[in-house]
Amino acid sequence: MLKIENLHATVTDSDEVILKGIDLEVSPGEVHAIMGPNGSGKSTLANVLMGKPSYTVSEGDITVDGESIVEMMPDERAHLGLFLAMQYPSEVPGVRPWQFLKAAKDAIDDANGQKKTSVRQFSKLFDEKVEEIGINLDLIKRSLNEGFSGGEKKRNEMLQMQVLDPRIAIMDETDSGLDIDALQAVADGVNKMRSPERSFVIVTHYQRLLHFVHPDIVHVLVDGKIVETGDASLAEKVEQNGYRDYLAAQRNGK
Amino acid sequence: MTLNVAVMPKNTARHLARYRDDWHHLAEHQEGYMSGADAHHELRRAAWEEFERIGFPVHRRGNELWKYTDLRQVDRIDFRFGDWDRHVDLARIAELVPMPEEWSNLVFVNGSLEHSSGDAPLTRIQACDWVGELADYRSNGFVALATAFLRIRGGSYLQFDRPREYVRPVHIIHVIDGSVGGPIVDNPRVAVEMGDGSRATLIESHVSLTDDVHMTLPVVEIKMGEGAELSHYRYQDNSEKSFHFATTRVLQEANSNYRSTSFSVGSDIGRNDVFTHLVGEYAESTLHGVYLTTNRQHQDNEISTTHAAPHCTSDQYYKGVLSGRSRAVFSGKITVERGAQKTDANQKDLNLLLSHGAEVDTKPSLEIYADDVKCAHGATAGHVDEDTLFYLQSRGVDYHTAQAMLIRGFAAEILSEFEDNELHAFLENQLDELMPALQAASDTIGTA
Ligand SMILES: Nc1ncnc2c1ncn2[C@@H]1O[C@H](COP(=O)(O)OP(=O)(O)OP(=O)(O)O)[C@@H](O)[C@H]1O
Ligand SMILES: [Mg+2]
Known about the structure:
The structure holds two protein chains of two kinds. By secondary structure, chain A is α/β, with parallel strands linked by helices. Chain A has helices at about 40-50, 75-80, 95-110, 120-135, 150-165, 180-195, 205-210, 230-240, 245-254, and strands at about 1-10, 15-25, 30-35, 55-65, 65-70, 80-85, 170, 200-205, 215-220, 225-230.
């Protein structure tokens, strides 16, 4: 369903190449994990998939169900069913979580020719998820992410993901900065959402989350390229050995 | 002596002769002028003489108060004072401002009281013996002109006394009907006396019935007695071809609490000049506002507080949203006089620039002559944050909607301080109606 071919990306208005030829195919129902050292390009890949304007695709293609999305705006990608749980979600003054999420859901439903969810129905869904994920009720009265702790922001990303119900969920270090309970809540949420129609791309540094959410395929990203792909055991190997060998190989290759 | 004459600024008002004719006409035809029953005759004459001496502050060089605001076009227009009584249907006015039954609504059209409801403690300005005490006409061309043309009929003198509780907000609506032929000037005058321990809510609205050129020179003087509390909301939505130069002067006795919250969207050149003078201990002064400008509008905020007594608190907080080729000025002044120890003063001006052509000049000025003082100030001007836009868009909301959400979110902090539900809902709606114009004139996508 999601296919990435020879993807090269630069920082917009600069020559700095960050992604240097990525190939990746994600089929319906699969969970992919992406690991890699700091600065290797994991977040860039996630952001490029979602269409962040500060990056430019300079070569290659990204398709969803055979259709290229490279020229699409982020909202159009969301309408196709993509979702990115961000590593550093923005703080949005004056915008309330409930109102925003309702507007987002309505926009997606509208783009897909579906009826708006009624306020009552939406509230029910919202409250249910808030409870499940364990979000402090005071937070949802505040501005979106404003003054939220790192972990609270991540929980809020999970709330959005679960309410918007995407087909392709990309999670960028959602597990970082979470306490044990929150990690469990995120894992439970993902596992509940797993289905033959939905895929996940999970960027993580730790084995922790992968103990709860078993990935089908694990990739190691180094310096803008996928250098190894394997099954869940690859994650364990990485956790034990770190990235030294990959980085050394990369240096020798140059 | 001759030296003095040499340095005196020459009156540069282009249409001085016209103003003079109008002034003589007014002075001689006021009822009570001949009989000496006009309590403000001397004030009026002195103010006129001052205006004759100084005119409008057209020359900006070396004039810090008018450094960023160009008044040449105001000076060029042949404005007329006079009695332009108009009967206007209330229904038409109700389309421009909220007028709920629970408020005391006072509707002035071109300066004359056309309608009033509720229980506002209102008399004519003639009855007030301290008019001009707070709003000094000297060295201030607009206040001088407004005072020179002080009406005998009209004006608002509001006296809020304990033990009465004024639970109804008093809403003074200044409507300009500019279709009377020729550009007119209105100089609405308001004097508010807050008795010791009294509480009230005052809403001051300025709207235009037509999009004609006109000038409004509101002068509002407020005396806050000991422990008095006043919430003063200000809504300025005059015609985009008009000129609005407002002067508000507040004198605060001990333990008084004055809160001003303004929403300014109208006029070609608008100026909101507010000064609060804290003369009693533990007085609190909160001056907040939001201004939204587009096209070639110019909005000038001249905000000043003087701490003349210890233990007082003041807070100036303004937010601007600028689009098109509009300009805004924020000139915030805090003076802490010797002996005003334990002063706590804050000042902040934040601006959201939606276009490359928009510009804001922020000029903080702090003069502190006491040593035990807490004083903080800050100012920013920035574009809509690109990462935040991306964040909202990535959830399925299109660029336009996301930008509108961020604009609304930015203004929401000040809007939420309009605590009356009816007023708050009305202003939110005004903001929504303004949104297309703000966004159409926007050409920035995120931070450059
Ligand atoms: N907008 C940008 N401008 C300049 N450099 C950038 C930009 N975005 C990313 N980079 C650079 O690209 C490289 C990859 O960054 P990226 O954030 O994708 O790494 P990452 O793999 O997610 O790292 P981490 O594990 O620390 O989150 C880094 O060297 C980073 O400094
Ligand atoms: Mg990252």
